[in-house]
Amino acid sequence: MRHGKIAIRGFVDYNELILDVTIDSITQLRNLLLLSGDEVRIVRIEEQEIPVLPSDSLDGVNLEQLDISRCGLSVLEEGSLSGSALKHFYLENNDIHILPKGVFNGQNIEILNLMQNKISDIEDRALEGFVTNQLAMKDNQLSELTPAMFEGSSIHTLRLEFNQISKIHDNTFKKINNLTYLMLHDNNIDNLGSIFCQLETKELYNLSLVNNKIAALEPGCFEGSKIIGIYIESNRLTQIKKGVFNGLNFGAIDVANNQITSIEEGSFANLPLKYLYLTGNKLEKVSKTLLSGLDYVMEDLYLGENQITEIEPGSFGGLTIQGLHLNNNKLTCIKKGLFCGEEIEELDLSNNEISEIEVGAFDEVKGLVFINLSNNKLRKIKKGMFNISLDKINFENNEIDFIENETMEDIRFESLQLLNNPILNK
């Protein structure tokens, strides 16, 4: 047998070697590692020709991390990981087409990286007894997911983004133990049905469905599940119906960059929301019913990049919001009472068409420290417009050519930005 060539790359904890190796087969690697004793913990084999991972090829080897990326690997034989102690296993960018039963069953691997292969199928019960912090199958060729694929597994983070998934059977994710992060963005999912009902995981912190083809969310589609953050940005939603989020514990909802024109009254009622992203939709009006029943302290409410021309007074009544983002809309006038009774720390009204602000428009906003009015059409700043104390106010890129006498005495601020206004040229 010809011995492989080994190059020492560095050290881990001063006594655990990291090795790059050039070998003809995994069996040869096993023999080399058995000869080296238990000192080697990390091995990288990259850009070599290793088409098969044979049975028992790592038996007795005390490796913690093995990287066999870009090696043309296509076959994982049953029992190929038997007797191994791997914690990190990288098989990225190979030629694997199927995840067979008998390879990962009963294995406890902290990170299993199967990204950028050609996996189109996971055999039934192929992951039974498999325990991992992260199973990464990004950028494969999966089109359909069934419950039997993941049955009996324990997966903290499941990455299935950038596949071709168009069909997910009910209960596919129901019994995955400890599922906390589920990445399904950039697929072809168009209908949720009951896929995410009654999930048995304690808390799903992040459910990413960004950039799919979802056109509707039906009431009850998340019923009985403990989902904290749901991200459905860049889909095909046109409305939000009441009952979709009822009884749930969402801290973040992201439905930005859809085609939403209407939101039914009470859609967000009683949700402990910290973040609500409605950016980049087709909303034309903010009514009192939009956020009815939502009375929690919010970090950020994003309504920018819509087509909003009107805000009903009291629409944000009773809310405490750190950042209210209404930028890039079509607002023309800020009337007194528009923000009556709210507690808002930062208010972004930039990139609208605001030409008028009524005297006292911001007087009843509590806690306001920053207003961004840049890129509007303001021409005059009148006395009484800002009888408030601010850290910062931004008037950049307006048409301001007149500031009424004693106006600046009313505005108590630390920073006033007036760049690119005609008044600076006088």
Automatic annotation (TrEMBL):
<dbReference type="InterPro" id="IPR001611">
    <property type="entry name" value="Leu-rich_rpt"/>
</dbReference>
<dbReference type="Pfam" id="PF13855">
    <property type="entry name" value="LRR_8"/>
</dbReference>
<dbReference type="InterPro" id="IPR032675">
    <property type="entry name" value="LRR_dom_sf"/>
</dbReference>
<protein>
    <submittedName>
        <fullName>Uncharacterized protein</fullName>
    </submittedName>
</protein>
<dbReference type="InterPro" id="IPR003591">
    <property type="entry name" value="Leu-rich_rpt_typical-subtyp"/>
</dbReference>
<keyword id="KW-0433">Leucine-rich repeat</keyword>
<keyword id="KW-0732">Signal</keyword>
<keyword id="KW-0677">Repeat</keyword>
